[in-house]
Amino acid sequence: MGIRTGEDYIQALKSRQPEVWMNGRKVTDLVNEDNFKQPIREIAKLYDMQHDSKYRDKITSICEETGERVSNAFIVPKNYDDLMARRELYDVWAEATFGLMGRTPDFLNVTVTSMASSPNFYNQYNSDWAENIKNYYKYIRDNDLFMTHALINPQVDRSKSSHEQKDLFTHLGAVEETTDGLIVRGAKMLATLAPITDEVIIYSFPGFKPGDERYALSFAVPIDTPGLRLMCREPMQDGKRPLFDHPLASRFEENDAVLIFNDVLVPWDRVFLYNNVDAANKLYSETGLSQNTHQNAARGLVKLKFAQEVASKVADAIGVDGFLNVQTQLGELVQSVETIRALLRTAENEYTIRSNGEAIPNPIPLETIRGILPKAYPRAIEVIQTIGASGLILPPTEADLNNPELAEDIDRYYGGRSGISGEERVRLFKLAWDLSGEAFGQRLVQYERYYSGDPVRKLGMFYSKHKRQTSFDMVDRALEEALDFKNKYPKNPV
Ligand SMILES: Cc1cc2nc3c(=O)[nH]c(=O)nc-3n(C[C@H](O)[C@H](O)[C@H](O)COP(=O)(O)OP(=O)(O)OC[C@H]3O[C@@H](n4cnc5c(N)ncnc54)[C@H](O)[C@@H]3O)c2cc1C
């Protein structure tokens, strides 16, 4: 099949009925559910871009194996140009969504591509796993599917490992093996956009202990697999609010869901890892899984740049950007953007080739971005809040603007510096409020903190790995030189 259109994607959604719960009711008509309508349009738009002559050759390529056109996310990069072709896809889709949708299809498509291009890892444990992930990759690639993922266990009691939880199946685990496959039970979270995806893939961060074997799992199933329940969080927009009043929240809401597996059958050919604590702990670091940090970084840069531009435009609109305190805040944001931009370029320029022939960006600058963004993005939002001040809270609604009795007052009292009308400023400040004040905007902050794991533990892991890979040459030399000097000049003459 190769690349899908937006309509292909929507038709696939219509053909399925996953068990989706929201606000206490079962959602039976996904594509007409108010909360999902606009996000579905946004994802469909991305698929359509693959067919648009303006983007097609930038974001898709001909697959050597099938001769079909596929997303660049499915091409295993062999050199710098291939890596940059992927980057082009990340940029084009992130810019189309202002970086506000974190889980666009490229994210997991790249993840599965990386898993499948590490057969040696799987083969050392079980050759079936290597075969299964390879076939799954081909299936996703050739049908251009959209996936969600769920890596973490319910928060119930973080002081205990999986097998020590009160209930054996609080954390998702294997119940029994059958001839058809594995029966799994328990919950995983937090699957962003799950109801409007095609498939879900399960794997975990490291941290399994002996005794956790049944929880050491990786597999994929269709999102409408019998027994799989999707519990959505409370929507942050009802899908009915005017785009004028909520120009971002009404478009880019990514609902998140907890996945509850009630004795779900996972066919054996969809099992990528099972019953092996060692393999589960190494999966992340040894399969190139962290390749998706490249997508994360490119998308995060677009989002940070967007927030920086919003802050600057807000300041300009009300004539405060000549004040030193405002300039230093705006300058700080520009420098954050430039820092991320430079790190991303460094990671790409310093790419290496893995033993499987796959080109990968230098992970150290990418992980550095991962460490900086959870602080830089919330700071950008704080700057918008500080500079926008009361102006963020006061704008009237579209309905007010449409009332002729109010029009004159709105233009007079809600306008900006010379040249900015009441309506222009109201629209800008509403956008800034969506990003910085609305529940939608607060989720975006929380997303940047946590989307790829706990930043605290990630930084600890980053440092431990860095320490293992490095030496203390300069310190050793300074110590040696001091000793040499002491021996050479015992009385310290000049
Ligand atoms: C908006 C959003 C979207 C997301 N989308 C996805 C998704 O699509 N797929 C997915 O799989 N996940 C997703 N995540 C989940 C993300 O992976 C987790 O939030 C992240 O891994 C942290 O886990 P947690 O939220 O359970 O926090 P916890 O692990 O419960 O941590 C809570 C607090 O306790 C501290 N803490 C907990 N355990 C330890 C420890 N052992 N040592 C030190 N400190 C500890 C943490 O530092 C943190 O401050 C998303 C999260 C958010 C917020």
TrEMBL record:
Residues 5-273 form the HpaB/PvcC/4-BUDH N-terminal domain. Pfam families: HpaB, HpaB_N. The keyword Nucleotide-binding does not apply. InterPro entries: Acyl-CoA_Oxase/DH_mid-dom_sf, AcylCo_DH-like_C, AcylCoA_DH/oxidase_NM_dom_sf, HpaB/PvcC/4-BUDH, HpaB/PvcC/4-BUDH_C, HpaB/PvcC/4-BUDH_N, HpaB_Deino-type. Signal peptide: none annotated. The keyword Iron does not apply. It is an enzyme of class 1 (oxidoreductase). This is Anthranilate 3-monooxygenase (FAD)/4-hydroxyphenylacetate 3-monooxygenase. It comes from Virgibacillus litoralis. The lineage of its organism: Bacteria, Bacillati, Bacillota, Bacilli, Bacillales.
